[in-house]
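ok so for the tutorial part 2 we go from a plain amino acid sequence to predicted C-alpha cells. step 1 is just haveing the sequence, like this:
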Amino acid sequence: MKKLLILLIPSLFLAFSAPTAKRKLMADKAATTVTYAMRHPMHEWEGVSREVACAIVYDDATQRIENVAAAVKVSSFDSGNSNRDSHALESLEALKYPNVTFVSQDIQPGPNGALTIRGNLTFHNVTKPIVVQATRKDGNGRITVEGKFNLTLTDYKIERPSLMMIPVEDDLRMTFSFVFRTGGV
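step 2 — the prediction. this is what the C-alpha cells look like for a chain of 185 residues:
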C-alpha cells in the first residue's frame, strides 16, 4: 500500500500543478490591418491602419479563442490623401481621444470557423457594446481572424465631417484582419 501511495502522490501533484493550456498571443503587426470605409455623395474612400495592437487568450487544449483586446491609434489610418486624413484627425479630436479600443466579453464559435464576438468598443471616449461577426482560419502555424462591423459616427458623439457643406454619411464601415502565430506549422 505504501508503494502505491508513493507512486500516486507525485501523479496527483502533477495533475493539479500542470501549467494551463492558455496563452496570450500577440497579433503579427506586419500582417494585421484595420480598415474603415466612408461615403460622401461625391465619393467614397478607405483608410487603413497597419499599426494595430491586438492580443488574444488562446486555449491550446480546446483550440478556442477565449478573449480578444485590440487598440488602434486614430492617427495611424492612411486614406492616401493627407488633407483628408488631417481633416479626419480634427473631426475625431485625435489629440484628445487618440485610440479606438475593443475588449471582448464573450466569444462563441460557430460552424465553419464562424465567430460571434461580443464586447465593448471605445471610440471618441464613448464606450458601447457591439457584436462582431468574424471568421477564423487556421493554417501554416497561424490563426487569422477576419470580420467587419458598422459604426454610426453620431452614436459616438462625432460631428460628421463635410465637404462643400455636405456631411459624410453617418455610417463608418470597419473591417479587420488579425493574424496570430501559434508556433506550429
